[in-house]
Amino acid sequence: MLEFFASNYALNLLILICIYVILSVSLNLIIGYSGMLNLGHAAFFGIGAYASALLALAGYPYWICFIAAVFFAGLGGAMIAYPSLKLRGDYLAIATLGFGEIARAVMKNWVSLTRGPLGLPGIPKISFFGLTLTTKFQFFIFALIIAILVVLFVSKIVKSPFGRVLRAIREDEIAAQAIGKNIKKYKVIVVITGAACAGIAGSLFAHHITFIDPTTFTLMETILIVCMVVLGGVASIRGSVIGATILVLLPEPLRFLGLPTSMAAALRVMIYAALLILLMIYKPNGIFGEWRFRHAKSKEAL
Amino acid sequence: MTKHLLTIKDLDSWYGQMQVLHEVKMHIDKGEIVSIIGPNGAGKSTILKNIFGLIEKRKGKIFFDGKNIIKSKPENLTKLGITYVPQGRSVFPNLTVQENLEMGGFIRKDDLSEDIESVYKKFPGLKERKDQKAGLLSGGEQQMVAIGRALMLKPKLLLLDEPSLGLSPQMKALIFEKLIEVNKDGVAMVIVEQNAKMSLNISDRAYVLELGKNKMHGKGKDMLRNKDVAKLYLGGG
Ligand SMILES: Nc1ncnc2c1ncn2[C@@H]1O[C@H](COP(=O)(O)OP(=O)(O)OP(=O)(O)O)[C@@H](O)[C@H]1O
Ligand SMILES: [Mg+2]
């Protein structure tokens, strides 16, 4: 048993779980706690990965790469914060989806910077303060610490008075304004914070896999993260942690069937889809959710 | 113009390309109850949204306490003493009654407990339900929570959009009774109502709005007796 957990296979999975926990918890902050249907999360993930990888390849120490990942992903967040103020519901979803596609197109076509579809191989190992994370186990401990810090940070936000206002905005924007809150400020802060956290996940991912290319940061990836949030329960931190864990582990048994990769990939998507449908039928609030999307009340349109 | 609590001067207002208000004029004095009545789509709600700074495309002047607030944002208007109870059940449904009231006083720095108690005193029945989610209350109770929440900001002017919409006749009467009580504490009110009888009854003055324009204006009781008003807005009464 212990041997299994120490194996590279298990450690890889555990590291991925940490990365996806960060992604789903940060997306839940935006979607679940603030009610903004954001379908561009993979873009922030990718921006963080590229920022971190490019600087690391240019020889910068890891802490600078890490900060850059947070900064540039946050900057991406600032760019969609503006449509987030103007749009709601389906329209916001489409706008953020467009942002995600644009970000991916940039990764693919800005060849002089990103090498385009060739991707960035040989991303160096993480090292800071003279310490290099050489083994998978060390990397896992690092990823675990970061994931725990992000989870604590987001939990702290949603439990604070700030988080209460977020819930108020989610429930009724006009009423939230009626109690004197500047809802634009709150939305901008939330989108930037969620995006910056996804950037952290991107940095971990880049240095874990050591190779990135634009195909990782697609709409499919966003949908996977949305599934994690919805499965665990919208507006539940605990739910997002569990949703990420389940969906990282779920397709693993497929590996042992010895299917060709193309088929395994298709099967994985089908499993996610089936799971989502079952969820919508039997547990529309997710495992721990307190809230689900419904159609915006017409009076909210201004 | 400074002698009125609120003065609206020649207000034009648009949704996109569509002009909805045309040179609307009105005023509200300290401690007054003023009704705005008129048919569906006349622009009544739009006037309240304008006062509360929710409309971007507009022209004209709105003075509150002598200050032009045409450029002010809702969060600043609440600080000046204006609050707004939107049309429909405007509570935070997943927050408890108590939390709704606390949210009402969220921007205040001082202790809220006394004012929460006074809301419970004013609206008996809410206290027993203080730990229930507001979304599970009856329509009338939700309206009381919404009004109570607005009172937590100690407003000088309360804007109420169809406070009796969809309520039973007894509940309607109760809500209006409560509004009179709130008014006695010195809170001026603008009430928008389609079903205007009760609202005119408790109003000092009223404005009739039609197609986004001022149509008529007078004392609340006089309006009740006015034949045109009766025919058009009081259901033959
Ligand atoms: N958000 C909006 N976008 C576009 N048009 C709107 C919007 N809100 C209202 N309108 C239009 O503006 C006009 C005035 O609407 P308003 O809601 O102010 O009327 P009202 O007098 O409150 O009507 P009701 O009695 O039905 O509540 C109507 O023609 C309405 O269709
Ligand atoms: Mg209306």
Describe the fold and architecture.
The complex is a heterodimer of chains A (302) and B (237). Chain A contains 14 helices and two strands, in the order H-H-H-H-H-H-E-E-H-H-H-H-H-H-H-H. Chain A is an all-alpha fold. Chain A has one domain. Chain A has a two-stranded antiparallel ribbon with strand order 1-2. By secondary structure, chain B is an alpha/beta fold. The N and C termini of chain B lie far apart (36 Å). The chains are: A mainly alpha (302), B alpha/beta (237). At the A-B interface, helix 8 and helix 9 of A face helix 2, strand 6, helix 3 and helix 5 of B. The complex binds adenosine-5'-triphosphate and magnesium ion (MG). Adenosine-5'-triphosphate (ATP) binds next to helix 1 of chain B.
Largest interface: A-B, 20 and 31 residues
Shape field of chain A: globular
The beta-strand count of chain A equals: 2
Oligomeric form: heterodimer
Strand content of chain A: under 5%
Count the strands of chain B?
10
Helix content of chain A: over 70%
User: Could you list the spans of chain A in which at least 5 consecutive residues all have pLDDT below 50?
Assistant: 295-302
Bound molecules: adenosine-5'-triphosphate, magnesium ion
Kindly report how far apart the N and C termini of chain B lie.
Answer: 36 Å
Strand content of chain B: 25-35%
Strand order of the largest sheet of chain A: 1-2
Q: So how many helices of chain B?
A: 9
Structural class estimated from helices and strands of chain B: alpha/beta
Q: What is the element string of chain A, with H for helices and E for strands?
A: HHHHHHEEHHHHHHHH
How much is the average pLDDT of chain A? 88
**Biggest sheet strand line-up of chain B:** 6-7-8-3-9-10
